[in-house]
Amino acid sequence: MRTFLGIDVGAVSTDLVLLDENNDVLNSVYLRTQGQPIKMLKEGLSIIRKENQGISLEVVGVGTTGSGRVLAGVIAGADIVKNEITAHSVAALYLNPEVRTIFEIGGQDSKIIILQNGVVVDFAMNTICAAGTGSFLDHQAYRLDIPIEEFGEYALRSENPVRIAGRCTVFAESDMVHKQQMGYKEEDIIAGLCEAMVRNYLNNVGKGKKILPTIFFQGGVAANSGIKKSFEKEIGYQVVVPEYYQVMGAIGAALLAREEIELNPRPSAFYGFELVERNYQTSGFECDGCPNHCEVVEIMVDGETIARWGDRCGKWSLGYQAIR
Amino acid sequence: MKKKKVGIPYALYFYEYYPLWKEFLTRLGVEVVLSRPTNKSILDSGIRSSLSEICLPVKVFYGHVLSLVDQVDYILIPRMVCIEKGAFFCPKIIGLPDMVKSSLSSICPIISPVVDVRKSYGTWKNSLFQVGQLLTENTLAISRAISLSWENFQKNYVAHLLDPKVLRPASLIEGQDSINSKRQWEEKPINIAVVGHDYLIDDSYINLNLIEKLKRMKVNVLTPGMVHPAMVKKQLKKLYKPIFWSLSRKAVGAALYYFENGVEGIIHLTSFECGEDSMVGESIHHQSQKCPEVSYTEFVFDEHTGEAGINTRIEAFLDMIRRKKRIENSLAPSW
């Protein structure tokens, strides 16, 4: 069977999908990166291999995206390495060409993408602050000792959300402690947090953007029904959470790989599922060639260096040219 | 007699005025030491020694000052107040000599002439003269150095404007007529204007090598320096209110010019905590909403800006422009 593999290595999660020739999702894997992108990538690939035991798979194209896209591209042998904005918009547009707005909230960053007639016309990412991201919610859930998965249900039960400052995680936290000590109900505080996060997102990332339906909400935070509800309350439109909201980046990467291979036909650079048995090591050193002291990273497979980056001047760079 | 050494920090307004000071001081028989382009140790020492609330370019300035301290007899930090009617320098620049003096305790003498053309003592010539008197007693030599270096500064500026690299519409790269493969679309050069303060655009360490990265990705990079000042002036008249800051005028005027003159995208570079940029950015953004055919984005730089963030933004911005063109020209994927 001809298939396309999409890999999204993010700060918090590593996602993989395998699409068949009708672009239907055959397998989708969502793993926590836990600071070990190579290990998780290999684990994701072995899960896909196991799920397809006995089926002969031909991977025709591989695309990588996410903040770890370059590393993933080198490890897996990618045909295309693309940024998350393009990947997320391609996936959303494939599901619904009418999409005008995408809210994408991941672990470490959040984005808004504005589309018109099937192309991206504007986008924004969070800049200095992480208050409108998944890590913020994770952190607050931990503080309240509530599993993050149940956060949304708590919020939905609330009838009177309390107001919490969403400008900054530190202040949100002190606000929350204060509200707890005043005796407000837990679900009202959680709903207040969801509203604070949405407000912060719309005021920072969504500042000056014209938000029109159809609106897609994707990324890990879309699992939180409380946030979805707060968005709808704040902007007055329905917000759609697509079925594969968690792995939309990976789906986009797979679609982009397909596009790349079809428009520039060639055999895939994929190393095959056997790569999970290869032994990858990384090492680093500080270059002392100039006052910048760049931290250079080396990626090695079975003792042989396959890629090197991290230097500003490019004298060490290897195995990875300009990103397509 | 041993030559006196004057250090010039390679930061902030010196991106504009270094040639004038360099020639003037050299003509007085002084050795001019320009600090090295910003690097990690300059940035780190600047951050350590400056106030935490200050903008990144000022922190970088501190780093450059520190890198010169052991090498020179004086450091030149003019107090730039006003060089044209109705516009001023940012308060942090006006107060720069005092800020540096109060935060850096053990430092060699600072020469800080006032440049404020509203006052008789603050004209360029008087400022240069004051500096000259500190370095030599020969007033005739000072006057001569002033007129020659001022003349050359003006002459070079005019020559720069006649340079073919300074924008005429012809320096936009035109597309080929028949493009029919995806690869050709991706490799077709596109015109992107990068606007903002010179000390962000020209400092490749602060801007994480943005200009080189764009060029590597087949972008024809256009900057405010390539727009003729007459054009800048004309564009600024269109604003509802004049721009109050001298150093921002060029950036805004150039941005407005580029919106009308055939670039595919405009990137506004700003530094976090910059007061000017927060106002100026709004007026550029406002203009971008009137010109939806030109893609617009803003990159904010700060001391902890990671390279991954900027790469993603650059790639997404270029992808947006290139995919839009390709799909409009019906080179969409087959499915």
In a few lines, what is going on in this structure?
The complex is a heterodimer of chains A (324) and B (335). Chain A is α/β, with parallel strands linked by helices and 324 residues long.
- Rounded mean pLDDT of chain B is 86
Calculate the terminal CA-CA distance of chain B, rounded to whole Å: 80 Å
- Provide mean pLDDT of chain A, rounded: 88
Major sheet of chain A, described briefly? 5 strands, mixed
Spatial strand sequence of the major β-sheet of chain B: 2-1-3-5
Helical amount among residues of chain B, as a percent range? 40-55%
Please indicate the percent range of residues of chain B in DSSP E strands (runs of 2 or more).
Answer: 5-15%
- The Cα radius of gyration of chain B reads 22 Å
What does this structure look like?
The complex is a heterodimer of chains A (324) and B (335). Chain A is an alpha/beta fold and 324 residues long. In chain A, strand 9, helix 8 and strand 10 form a beta-alpha-beta unit. Chain A contains nine helices and 13 strands. Chain A has three domains: 2-89 and 249-277, Nucleotidyltransferase, domain 5; 99-240, Nucleotidyltransferase, domain 5, CATH 3.30.420; 279-324, no CATH class. In chain A, the strands form three sheets. A five-stranded mixed beta sheet of chain A has the order 3-2-1-4-5. In chain A, strands 8-7-6-9-10 form a five-stranded mixed beta sheet. Chain B has 335 residues and is an alpha/beta fold. In chain B, helix 11 (229-236) packs across helix 12 and helix 12 (246-260) packs parallel to helix 13. Chain B is globular and about 75 Å long. Chain A binds chain B through residues 23, 67, 82-86, 94, 109, 118-125, 127-128, 208, 255, 258-260, 262-264, 290-293, 312, 322-324, and chain B through 36, 39-42, 181-183, 186, 205, 209, 216-217, 272, 285, 289, 292, 295-297, 300, 302, 308-309, 311-313, 315-317, 319-320, 323-324, 327-328, 331, 333-335.
